[in-house]
Amino acid sequence: MGLGRHILMQRDAIRQIGVLAGLILAGALGAIVLALPIPLLTGPAIATTLGSLAGLRLNFPTGLRQTVFLAAGLAIGTTVTQDSISALARWPIAFAILAVAIVLLVILGARLMQILMRVDKRTALLAATPGHLSYVIALGEDMNMATSKIAVVQSIRLLALTLLVPFAARLSGIETGIGFEGGQRGIQNMSIPITLLCLAGALALTPLIAKLRIPAPPLLAGMIVGAGTQLTLGGGSLSHWIAWPALAAIGGLIGTRFAGIRPQDLRQSAMAGLAGTALAGCLTLAAAWLAKGIVDMPLLHVLVAFAPGGLETMTVMGSAIGANPGFVAAAHVGRLLLLSALIPFLVGRTEQPLPVQR
């Protein structure tokens, strides 16, 4: 009986992965046909979101997710150049501007969420947190909060930013191409031996980064190894046969965040999620405008670095539009580290809410 049940569970898991892969492929091809910006990211994100909301059970295994992020990190890391490194001296002031914007966003966003969602201060605070979804949900579960509402608001923000930034790039006259095109034009692909060496190095570095409790270890490990290889050996860019499927998989992962969300939770929290995204967009745009002259980068590049989207997604997005990958990654890591310290402090200063009914 136990063996039979195990086999059935394995078959069900394989079926879910098959459905997910089909949606990702269909979304990518459809977006290419429709000429959407960054089709390998936006197409799968739309397709899997619709599938999740339609009730499909979409499973994205942890091991596959880590592999995808590692490959994406390598692809992004190979876009790093000496010019990217030279901007380091100008970044501290820009990061200070970002920190102020994050604090304002959390405080104002929490008040907005409390009004729109009619929830206690702690739930509103976690719903307004600009990113760090897994950390926020863990805090909410530990304090017995209505985490389903928090997850909806956070997922809407991530999806909205994923879809809006590519279209903003197109309206700004930036050609994004089909995938990791922004920083890879004119660069030859890595040889197979160098690719295997980079993969092995990134795999070895990932657990070391994880021990430091830095967000997204596989992605950052891939970026570090890819950048180091490019700057020292000039190994070239990661093959599109690896980079493009990884990009499409990340798009598909975004949509799976809506899996299992009840329709009533979606209806109740959708307006709050869109309003929170609008507030985040306004504050981020203002911060990016102040910082763009300091870092000497286009406004859209700084906006992607400051946008409160997922670290992995926004870093990939920055690569697609040709933004400085080191600056984008550093800004998002800094944002998550600041939130890791700021949110528990603010939560601890609010009154204890009544237990929610699940």
Total number of beta strands: 0
Distance between the termini: 33 Å
Q: Can you give the mean pLDDT? A: 81
- What is the count of structural domains? 1
C-alpha Rg (nearest Å): 20 Å
Query: Given the C-alpha coordinates, what overall shape results?
Result: globular
Report helical residue fraction. over 70%
What is the number of helical segments per DSSP (H or I, 4+ residues)? 15
Could you spell the SSE succession in H and E letters?
HHHHHHHHHHHHHHH
- The structure class reads mainly alpha
What's this entry about, in short?
Pfam families: AbrB (PF05145). By secondary structure, the protein is mainly alpha-helical.
Which tags fit this structure?
358 residues; mainly alpha; 15 helices; globular; disordered C terminus
Structure, explained:
This protein is mainly α and 358 residues long. It has one domain (70-348). 74% of the residues lie in helices and 0% in strands. It contains 15 helices and no strands. Helix 1 crosses helix 11, helix 3 crosses helix 11 (240-256) and helix 13 (299-306) packs parallel to helix 15 (325-348). The protein is globular and about 55 Å long. Mean pLDDT is 81; it is low at 182-186 and 353-358.
